[in-house]
Design a protein that fits this description.
The chain has about 290 residues and is of the alpha/beta class. The chain has helices at about 30-40, 100-105, 130-135, 165-170, 180-185, 195-200, 245-255, 260-275, and strands spanning about 5-10, 10-15, 20-25, 40-50, 65-70, 75-80, 90-95, 115-120, 140-145, 150-155, 155-160, 175-180, 205-210, 215-220, 225-230. The longest helix is centred in the last third of the chain and has 16 residues, at about 260-275.
């Protein structure tokens, strides 16, 4: 059975949408763990969380092995959706800077895992030295890059260029980002997304995946020197878009462990993302009928 190690922060989220305001466990690791558990994947999650907020972990699937790195405070996010368009979102946050260091990984037998799913939410969450430590196993690193671009101005989340991104990309098998993040990384140098993915792939990743909301996703494979446009799967209803990109990422890497076909992986991830959009919180359903592995 394939075994994943997830790394990243657990967050306290407040979500405002369609006149409703509710609190939820959040963070990419939470949404990814739901997908992997639903697909029957052996999953361990190394997460940072405040000592007084361990209850946030209770909602994780029971089959997920959680290693909690306790800190003084938990990262907090406010996600406000001003319309029914899931692509529109305003964010505020409180980010305590809880880094997962290479020293913490020394107490874990990381050689037992087949792959690593790394998902920072702020620049200091997963330092370069931590990725280097994982890289020495020669196991694939799947990296969601959003956190390295996120900064706060009066608690409002803004994106800024990621100056040393090439060092991180050189250690990653596949990277994931959305189109806004892709343009911020490249600045004014390149505006065409197909050129952006090729330039990012030149720095190391075998694949660069850009999610485009209801326009699907764009995948570039450096091995095949080919770009794939994957259509979005229309959901029956739009219930909760929070964690949609994290869900796509988890589904993609699951399929990627058995297939080298980016198109096949992208289509599968789009199917899972559509199911997530129909549900509040992380997707936690029996997905064995999809025959993913």
């Amino acid at each position: 059975m394939v075994s994943f190690l997830l790394l990243g922060p657990v967050t306290k989220d407040t979500i405002s949408r369609d006149g409703l305001v509710y609190e939820s466990t959040g963070g990419p690791v939470y949404y990814q763990a739901g997908v992997l558990a639903s697909l029957g994947i052996k999953t361990t999650a190394l997460v940072t969380v405040g000592r007084g907020d361990k209850y946030l972990l209770n909602i994780f699937p029971p089959t997920v092995n959680i290693i909690s790195s306790l800190r003084d405070n938990t990262a907090e996010f406010e996600n406000f959706y001003p319309s029914k368009d899931p692509n529109q979102r305003r964010q505020k946050a409180r980010l305590p800077g809880n880094s997962i260091t290479a020293n913490e990984l020394e107490s874990i037998d990381i050689s037992q895992f087949d792959a690593f799913l790394v998902s920072p939410l702020s620049p200091g969450d997963i330092p370069l030295e931590t990725l280097k430590y994982l890289y020495q196993t020669k196991k694939p690193i799947y990296l969601g890059v959003q956190g390295y671009l996120r900064h706060l101005i009066h608690n409002k989340v803004v994106l800024r260029p990621w100056k040393n991104f090439k060092k991180f990309l050189n250690l990653s098998k596949v990277i994931f980002l959305d189109e806004v993040e892709a343009r911020v990384i490249m600045g004014t140098e390149v505006s065409d997304l197909e050129k952006i993915v090729q330039k990012l792939a030149a720095d190391g990743p075998e694949e660069v995946v850009i999610t485009l909301g209801d326009r699907g996703s764009l995948i570039y494979s450096s091995q095949k020197n080919k770009t794939y446009r994957i259509p979005a799967v229309t959901p029956h209803e739009t219930t909760d878009p929070t964690g949609l990109g994290d869900t796509y990422m988890a589904a993609y890497v699951t399929k990627r462990q058995e297939s080298i076909d980016p198109k096949k992986c992208g289509i599968f991830a789009s199917q899972i993302a559509s199911l997530k959009l129909e549900n509040r919180g992380a997707l936690m359903s029996d997905l064995s009928y999809l025959d993913c592995m």
